[in-house]
Specification:
This protein is mostly helical and 333 residues long. The chain has 2 domains: 10-111, no CATH class; 173-330, no CATH class. 54% of the residues lie in helices and 4% in strands. It contains 14 helices and 3 strands. Strands 1-2-3 form a 3-stranded antiparallel beta sheet. The N and C termini lie far apart (120 Å).
């Protein structure tokens, strides 16, 4: 209620200017409007409030807060913070108009596919399209120049080349051994005559004087004649490697005069195993004249390594043994 002297109390003054009493009290505490003894003069109240509105509008335009920016562009305070980081704008140094214009431009760029993540996606799609067009034009050029080959024609040739490469690589060691040392193995007689237990038992790695008779080592595998499966070789590989380390260099070589009885006992063959009279069924030697006579038993030959060569024949898979101390004349097959 206005007093007799024309002054208004807080509630009456707030209703007079159309704001809340708390807001008017805050303005009075800040010095925006004058207050005398807790009451307001109507004329000075209106003047102070109008001046406050003008200065506040200028302040918001010049140095807006994030809350005021959010109210202006209809965003939350957190969204305004992310927007300012994205636009690289400091609200303490930029006006509200500048922030509003930058926000509108960003919206336009995003809508046109030139801003934000859409810009990177658009650039990537354009790059892929350009590469696809270039590849298609290149294929069309090759087709017109008749430089393309049909898959149906190319596949048989590639298969043939692959088979040739495999055979060349597989026979490379054998050919080198034949050309350098002049030795070759008769694999068929060895595989057909030597039982599987010769591969698994240590008696094959020791001379007859150290191992005893062949019947001592015979077992369930003694009747087999084919090579063992790969899993079996994997299982016995550590044992075989340990046994090979215990064999001395001199035991790996046959005597200078390999007799028939020595071959039978050394390889644990039946008596009919050496059925070629006076001949060794294990190794053949290439002569310089092109003939390939068998090595006669009883001949003096220091280049014969029957034992080592036979062991390598029984293990045609490369890498099964590592015997750096073997004589080079044995060759690797």
């Amino acid at each position: 209620m206005p007093a007799d002297d024309g002054y208004l109390d807080l509630d009456a003054a707030a209703r007079f200017v159309g704001i809340a009493p708390g807001e008017l009290d805050k303005l009075a505490r800040a010095g925006a409007v004058q207050r005398e003894n807790g009451r307001f003069h109507p004329l000075r109240l209106v003047r102070g409030y109008v001046e406050h509105i003008r200065s506040e509008g200028k302040r918001k335009e010049k140095n807006p807060t994030q809350g005021e920016i959010g109210e202006h562009v209809d965003l939350s305070v957190r969204s305004v913070s992310d927007l300012l980081k994205k636009l690289d704008i400091d609200n303490k140094l930029s006006s509200l108009s500048e922030i509003r214009i930058a926000y509108i431009r960003d919206l336009r760029a995003t809508a046109a596919g030139r801003g934000g993540e859409e810009q990177a996606n658009l650039t990537l799609q354009r790059t892929r399209q350009a590469e696809a067009d270039a590849n298609l034009k290149q294929l069309e050029l090759f087709a017109r120049a008749e430089r393309l080959v049909s898959i149906d024609e190319l596949e048989p040739k590639l298969s043939h080349w692959a088979s040739l490469a495999r055979s060349e690589v597989g026979d490379m060691s054998a050919l080198r051994a034949k050309s350098e040392r002049g030795w070759a193995l008769a694999r068929a007689p060895v595989i057909s005559r030597l039982p599987v237990f010769l591969i698994l038992q240590p008696s094959v790695l020791l001379p007859p004087s150290k191992t005893g008779t062949a019947s001592r080592w015979t077992g369930s595998l003694s009747t087999g004649t084919s090579m063992p499966p790969s899993w079996l070789l994997q299982a016995v590989r550590p044992t075989l490697a340990a046994m090979l380390k215990r064999v001395s260099r001199q035991w790996m070589r046959p005597p200078k005069v390999p007799t028939r009885q020595w071959l039978v006992e050394y390889f644990h063959l039946p008596p009919e195993g050496a059925d070629l009279p006076g001949r060794c069924p294990i190794i053949t030697r290439h002569s310089t004249t092109g003939n390939h006579p068998s090595v006669p038993i009883g001949s003096q030959s220091k280049d014969i390594a029957v034992r080592s060569t036979t062991i390598r024949t029984m293990f045609p898979i490369s890498g099964v043994f590592s015997m750096p101390w073997m004589t080079p004349r044995c060759g690797w097959w």
